[in-house]
Amino acid sequence: MKAWLASAAAVGLAGVALAQGSTTDEIERYRQMIADGNPAELYEMRGEELWRTKAGPKNASLEKCDLGLGPGVTKGAYAQLPKYFADTDKVQDAESRLLTCMEQLQGIDPKEVINGRWGQGKRADVVAIVTWLSGESKGVKVSVQPKHPKEKEAYALGRKAFYFQGGPHDFSCASCHGEEGKRIRLQDLPNITKPEGAHKGWTSWPAYRVSSGQMWSMQHRLEDCYRQQRFPEPVYTSELTIALSYFMAANSNGYPMATPGIKR
User: Fold this and answer.
1) CA–CA separation, 180 and 116 (whole Å)
2) Which of 6, 99, 102, 260 would be 110's cystine partner, CB 3.0–4.6 Å?
């Protein structure tokens, strides 16, 4: 009897594993199907147009914006962000750096974006520009390594935030992304602590979300993670969100960018 129960249990577990494997395969097929004609291309086109269009009180474009490789250089720039910028004395990601350029070159108050809403106004413009900039780094290997003291601080803060547990459910980022083999509903969750998982969580954002019909930047992705943890919404381009981005990017170092992506 015991032998029969053990055999039945083994068969049952094998069936569960097979079902999970089959589901994972089907999800991957679905991703490949929707990748054809990714709507992100429309956001890329709009982002490039916004980059070159004069705007703001200074009636200037962003074509002289320095994203870390020199004024106006966009090819490969996204792949080496976040990074430390001497002119602001801060570690900045693509979105916060764009706010700096919009303020310096165009005279646009960053608060218009920071206090804005997703999918609307100036924040939607920034997401479109970031989508285009990410496409300018497609296939380029991530080059984010903490060398400057403030980059090392950002990595340490990002790691601390990743493991910090709190909220009504005592969740942390690591609750979902700190181990192998975790999933939520039908979604496999990458292990951000390992390079193999970190790049899956970093190099495919910004991404078009089919379920919401919106283009999401990494800042938006992180904000939604905090929402799901039942934490207060983080401030857009805050030191915390940039530190978390730095932690993920540094753990992805050496992997090629695959943006803009497409998600369910």
Assistant:
1) 36
2) 99
Measured CA to CA, the distance from residue 145 to residue 258 in angstroms comes to 19
What dihedral do alpha carbons 208, 226, 145, 62 form, nearest 10°?
A: 50
Of the pLDDT bands very low, low, confident and very high (cuts 50, 70, 90), residue 170 is: confident
Domain count, the chain: 2
Rg, Å, the chain Cα set: 20
Co-location of 12 and 118 in the same domain: no
| Tokens describing residue 245 | 């981005």
Phi, psi of 130 (to 5 degrees): -65, -35
- Domain ranges, residue 6: 1-36
pTM of the model: 0.86
Same domain for 120 and 31: no
- Examine the domain organization and report whether 125 and 139 are in the same domain: yes
Helix (H) or strand (E) holding 175: helix 173-177
- Which active-site residues does the annotation give? 225
| Mean pLDDT within 217-233 | 93
**Residues shown for the chain:** 264
